[in-house]
Amino acid sequence: MKKYLLYIACLLGTLVSCKKSLNEQPQGVLASDQLNTPVNVEKMVVAAYSSLGNENLHTSNSLWPWGSMRSGDAYKGGDGVGDNSEWNDYETFVTNQNTNSLTDQMWAQIYNGIARVNNALLRVNTIAPADYPLKTARQGEMRFLRGNYYFMAKILWNRVPFIDENVPTTDYIKISNVALTSDQLWDKIAADFRFAVNTLPATQTDKGRPTKYTAQAYLAKTLLYQAYKQDDNHSVTGIDQAKLNQVITLCDSVINFSGYALAADFANNFLAATENGPESVFAIQYSKNDGTQFGRIDMGHSLTYPMNPEYGCCWQHIPSQDLVNNFKTDNNGLPMFTGYNNTDATKVSDFLNQTFDPRLDHTVGIPGHPFKYVPTFVYQTSWARAPAIYGFFTSMKDDAAANDPSFQKIPPFMSSSKNWELIRFADVLLWKAEALIELNRPLEALPLINMVRQRAANSTARLKQADGSFISNYKVGVYQPGVNCVWTQDYARQAMHKERRLEFAMEGNRFFDLVRWGIADTYLNSYFTSESTKRTYLKTAKFTKGRDEYLPVPLNQINYSKGLYKQNPGF
User: Fold this and answer.
1) Is the pTM of this model over 0.70?
2) 94, 113, 131, 215: which could form a disulfide with 196 (CB 3.0–4.6 Å)?
């Protein structure tokens, strides 16, 4: 971002030099303060929102390249390890360096979003409330958006420079990424969400704008992450009980608000026809037929479609065999904490001869199964691009059916205008459950986890073949202490960890959960040992404790800062 700021500074300098020789104001040029009108500021607020959808092919704001592909949920996919090799570096960890161009692009993308927010805020702040009745609400919305962007940066890099609207652009170069401690940075992010909680209305006419309850949910998420204290080696040294209690209070406020509930069918969260439903707490709003050539579609997932003629490119973000096996259930319909990898489910018969959680077929495209709820649109092995390397599965949540009104081709790529959920009501339920379990109140967490499981059990209506038979053999039970489980704190913690994986698989959350819980190294290295027997390219993969929990600060950014930014450990 700084190179662009430098360019703008040079441009402004050129304009000042011209003014020395020209006493007249150039025609068609507005001074900066002339933009500070309610009409123009509203446009800048919209521009700040648009940054949520300003992704490109490789920098998805869903964070799947960093949250799914580095977690054991997904392989890179594509034509082989050299296709978008930067993603292969992420997935295998050992070759990931501070020169990875996609890391630099993501840094710039996030800080461009922050810059738009700060520019809008700076101008909103100058207008009197009498002239701009929406002033307070817009301040809350912009603080919320800034909190979102900084949250993303925090979980990606850990230590980043914090710049708000009060910092002159000339001082950006003076702010280090280690000026704040990790805790202080969390406090800054939390402060933006707290401001939003105190200023936003309970409801909004425009579905894409955050509300008081949206901000409470995001604040709960922030405090939950902050509660897990990490040392310099990124080991979890303790969990802040006071913050966990705050998480519970905030989640309760969202849960008790009548506007939110679990969607009746899990599928509703991933279809354009049912978007902005009761489970949607905060979503990126995409569009088509909006006056632009192709619409503001979800370019962040445009490489995830399979290779059949209806789509055609590029088969990235491929569910792992480990993830598919994780959806198996035992005789009671409960998840299998161990033993799920003893045999691999790959063929149609495998999914009929064992029992599975229905969320499998909402998440994974499987050969012989209908794709995206269209019984006559059956996924074929030929749709896979490099099955010898990555197997035959494909991602489902990201994509839209080829006949769906939201689907849009941008040859040779494609995507859709369906929303992408950043926070779902199921998140809120499981965040509260997590806080309760870590406070050693597991029985209070039980009904929350069971609510999510019961909804999964009820989500089979769309999962049928053309003849009306179910795609897979589904069996989901709820946890019943003393009947099918012993609900101790440790067991409840395993159940919660498993539930988050099943519920949010392929949504870009998993890696950050593993880091928060302090188990990324042991979990991923165990995964590599097992999965590399099936995917040989993973034989050299290794997660290094104390380094790989966070991305390296891009070398370009360190150079732009003239060495002010400090590199993360191990890079």
Assistant:
1) yes
2) 215
